[in-house]
Amino acid sequence: MPAEKGQVYVVTGGCGFLGSHLVRMLAERSRNVAEIRVFDLHLDETLRTLSTDQVKLTLIQGDISSPEDVRAALVGGDVVIHTASLVDVWGRVPASKVTKVNVTGTENVLRVCEEEGIQYLVYTSSMEVVGPNIHGDPFYRGNEDTEYNIYHDQPYPLSKSKAEKMVLAANGKKINGGKILYTCSLRPTGIYGEGHELMRQFYKQGLRTGRRVFRAIPPSTEHGRVYVGNVAWMHLLAAHHLQERPSALGGQVYFCYDHSPYKSYEDFNMEFLSACGFRMISSRPLVPYFLLYLIALLNSLLQWLLHPFCIYAPILNPYTLAVASTTFTVQTDKAERHFGYKPLFSWEESKRHTVAWVKSFEEGEKSR
């Protein structure tokens, strides 16, 4: 059972997109937390303002792939929420670095939990440990038990899949002090919301084309999206109930979901970009799929040829094209059944918050 008060929570990757939302929510909504340790390679100093008389917030700079740094951050902790991850599906960083952060970093966290007797670990995984696969097989309204042809050939999904397997395999392991380690894994689909860097890139790209978005993917392609605030909320609930009911949550995986509509990535992004005067050109793809695939292959070839001289990493490559053009939607209530999760933010609230953030780009453009 969790202590009534005075717990130490450690959030790895706590200054990232999801991590910072999680830290803020933990600081605002926690009832039995004495300290929140935010561990990240790049610190967000604005998070220091979250410290109160009741909850101390500590920023710790360090590298998740360094055993020494991880130990310094985790020692004395009670609960670890491990969100630290290197997300790269474009080839912007070497595959070895993706593996070092996502796999070796998770190994370091598990080792310190074992040696320091830290009993509870919630891991932020990804839908990409399942798919979409590169064959384009749809995952339509699937759940945690849906059979699917999982096939990975890219560093990011490979690394997340391996890390998740390690986390789940560690559940029930005896650790220092005669305790038992309990773990669970959360798999967000495409996260959106304030601070989503890819949305910022789409905005800038749209400005270069006169606020016009050219359809590339059929609108019939659907993807599951989930608001960052609801993903953070699910993590907090999972961390709490993992302590209260470890035998029920331990070793389990949960998709992160809410009431966001199923749409193609392009149509979903337009829910926010249209508020800034962006408009979608054509109701059907303007470029045939085979031509998009040839462009994606050409981008991969150029990336390989230019690698010795510079980093060439466009958004479109064979993997991102496969993901964007493959239906992947989740329909499940497992988190609700196991630990009472319900979205904290409705779709209308999630949209309003995200639109307000996107509109803030407008102010930035006007001030230049």
Summarize the structure.
41% of the residues lie in helices and 17% in strands. With 368 residues, the chain is of the alpha/beta class.
Write up this protein:
With 368 residues, this protein is of the alpha/beta class. It has a domain at 7-196 and 225-261 and 329-345: Rossmann fold (3-Layer(aba) Sandwich), CATH 3.40.50.720. The protein is built from 12 helices and 15 strands. It has helices at residues 17-29, 67-74, 95-116, 155-170, 197-208, 228-244, 246-249, 265-273, 289-306, 318-324, 334-339, 347-366; strands at 7-12, 33-40, 56-61, 79-82, 120-124, 139-142, 174-175, 179-180, 182-188, 190-192, 212-214, 225-227, 253-256, 279-281, 328-330. Strand 4 (79-82), helix 3 and strand 5 (120-124) form a beta-alpha-beta unit. Helix 1 (17-29) packs across helix 6 (228-244) and helix 3 (95-116) runs parallel beside helix 4 (155-170). The chain starts with 6 loop residues before the first strand and ends with a helix. The mean pLDDT is 93.
